[in-house]
Write a structure and sequence with these properties.
The protein has a domain at about 40-115. The protein is built from five helices and no strands. The protein has helices at about 10-35, 35-65, 75-95, 100-110, 110-130. Helix 2 runs antiparallel to helix 3 (about 75-95). The N and C termini lie close together (about 10 Å).
Length: about 130
């Protein structure tokens, strides 16, 4: 009996930002084609904040798990602590001013979730192809 090989997590990790960017572009294009410019702007802002949040979290986790380093840099800690207040401040600002629909911003926050779902389907399809 042959044991299934581990998935190549480094390649999957490299594909995640591309999936997220692709999902963001599809959402923006769809909103623009439907004539919803304000929704597209809000969605784009939410997607940009969510992708930035993902990158900062990814960098912080990599730094914390790096061997041979006793303490993370001050910049990594700042980025780790600023992630959620920045997102909440953006939502609050757009809610108070009405510049973009808050629901569009919140929809943009789910772009990383869509990217992860797509990558999970890629991983599942690769698992079914292995002997």
């Amino acid at each position: 009996m042959e044991i299934a090989q581990e998935p190549d997590l480094a390649r999957a990790e490299a594909r995640l930002p591309r999936w997220m960017l692709g999902c963001a572009l599809v959402g923006l294009l769809t909103a623009c084609l439907c004539g919803r410019a304000r929704f597209a702007a809000g969605f784009g802002l939410g997607a940009a904040l969510a992708i930035l949040n993902y990158h900062w979290l990814h960098h912080a986790v990599e730094t914390l798990l790096a061997a041979g380093r006793a303490r993370p840099s001050r910049w990594v800690v700042i980025k780790f602590l600023v992630r959620y207040p920045l997102a909440l401040a953006a939502v609050w600002l757009f809610y108070r001013t009405g510049w973009a629909p808050v629901l569009a911003i919140l929809a943009g926050f789910f772009v990383p979730v869509a990217g992860v779902l797509i990558e999970s389907f890629v991983q599942l399809s690769g698992g079914f192809r292995q002997p």
